[in-house]
Structure formats: C-alpha cells, structure tokens
Amino acid sequence: MKRNHLVILVAITVLALAGGTVFAQDLKIEYQIDVTGTARSNYLTFAGPIRYMAVEQDHFDGGTGASSKGSTEKFQPYRYDVLGKNALADGFRGLLLFGVAGNSYITGDNVTVSKASNGVITIQYAHRGTAYRLETDRNGRLQFPNGTYQKRSIGYIQGAGPQVISRDFSSNGNADGIDWNKVWSSSVAGGKAIPGSSSTTGNIVNDGASDESMYYWQGALQVTFERNVLKITGGLNAVKR
After folding, report:
1. Which residues 6+ apart lie within 8 Å of 62 measured at CB?
2. By C-alpha distance, which of 189, 211, 192, 208 is closest to 200?
3. Interatomic CA distance for residues 126 and 105, integer angstroms
4. Which of 30, 95, 155, 221 is the most exposed place for a label (fewest CB within 10 A)?
5. pLDDT digits (tens, 9 = 90+) for 119-164
6. Do the Cβ atoms of 202 and 221 come closer than 8 Å?
C-alpha cells in the first residue's frame, strides 16, 4: 500500500508540473549498455520531479539479482499515469531495464543495434515473446511522443525461460535465431499457433503512449552506438493532455 501511495504521489506531481504547459526537462535520463553482454559498465541514471524517485548510475547487483538502487520500481511512475495508462512506449521502458539487468538478459533477449549510413540507429530485442523495435531520426535522436516504436508478439516464455520463438521468425525457435526482417515484414501474417503453447503470433502494432493517458512525454533523447556500446542521454518534458 505504501508503494502504491508513492506511485500516485509522484504521478500527481508530474501532472502538476505539466499543468498544460511544457517545462524544460522534467525527466532526465543517462544510460549505457554494451550489447555484447560481456561488460560490467552498464548503468541507468534518471532524475524526475521528486528527489527520492531518482537514481545515479544504478546497475545490476549480482547478489540480489536486481537493480542495486531500485530503479526498476522508482521509474514506474514516469511510465504510467495514476490510472495505469502508458505515458511511454513499452519498448523504451524495457530497453532501460538492460542497464540494470545481468548480461545474460542482453544476450537472452537478443539485443541488436545497428546504425545505417543515413544516421538512423535501430534498436531491436525480444522479451518474454514480444519483439520491440525503436528507431531514431537521422540525427540519432529518439523522438517523443511520435517517434518510431513498434512491437509484435512472436513467441512465449514459461517460467525463467528461455523464450520460445515461432519458426516464422526464428531459424532455430530461439531468440538468437531471430530474423528481424521477417519480424517486421507485414507479409508474414500473425495469428498463427506456436507449437507447445496456446499462444499465437501477432501483427505489427505501434508502441507508444496511450491516447488516454493523462500526460505524455515530449522531447528527444540523443542516441549513440560505437564499439558495441549503446548510450542514451537527454531530457523529456511532461505534457498534460
């Protein structure tokens, strides 16, 4: 109950800050992961309108198997409004979790990052049977709320996993065999049964803030990808609908 009260308090504070106008960088984020899943330099920093709902370079704690400073829970009020409506894309929130998760999650979810010659950076991964894709603009910026964020159901997971991926999208039925071109091809129809479960594949859908949320985040975050290290920095503004 205490946690629920805290979540509501922070969400109300965000709405008060928004107040129908835009304030500079209500939510600041700094993030880094090595997509090879071999580094120990992954971290997540964020600061919002309430001091105790912020963390500085939070990271994975091997002893507890969770984030060292509790960022997983502390970020929740910035993800949802008080009615539980998304204020951010699920794929973006999931991406942040890799900064405070063990390296096995990065490899197990097949986090894949590429940079095109035109400057667009594409981030893809599959978590608990759902594939996510995030794309920057040509300047390497993730735009909010109208950037490119998509998701698709491609498999399932039981217990601790590993994921089982439909052979429509994976050569071996595992996450490491995913063909991302097939995942994001509308010519590969959804609605097909996945052997071994009652789950079915889905179609490509947009992933973003709910149109019914009380507020959403606006702005751009700068993304860089060099030597297998993905970095995200910048600030977002809370905007009341």
Report:
1. 102
2. 192
3. 10
4. 30
5. 999 999 999 999 999 999 999 999 999 999 999 999 999 888 899 9
6. no
Distance CA 180, CA 63 (A): 34
Give CA–CA dist 67/101, Å, rounded.
7
Whether residue 81 contacts residue 75, with contact meaning beta carbons closer than 8 Å, is answered with no
The string of DSSP letters for 115-146 reads E-TTS-EEEEEEETTEEEEEE--TTSEEEETT
Looking at the structure of the chain, the number of domains it has is: 1
Distance, in Å, from the CA atom of 128 to the CA atom of 189, rounded to the nearest integer, reads: 20
Instruction: Report d(CA 210, CA 196) in Å as an integer.
Output: 32
Nearest Cα to 97, choosing from 56, 67, 121?
67
Q: How many CA atoms lie within 13 A of 167 on its CB side?
A: 4
Terminal C-alpha separation, the chain: 28
- What is the model's pTM? 0.90
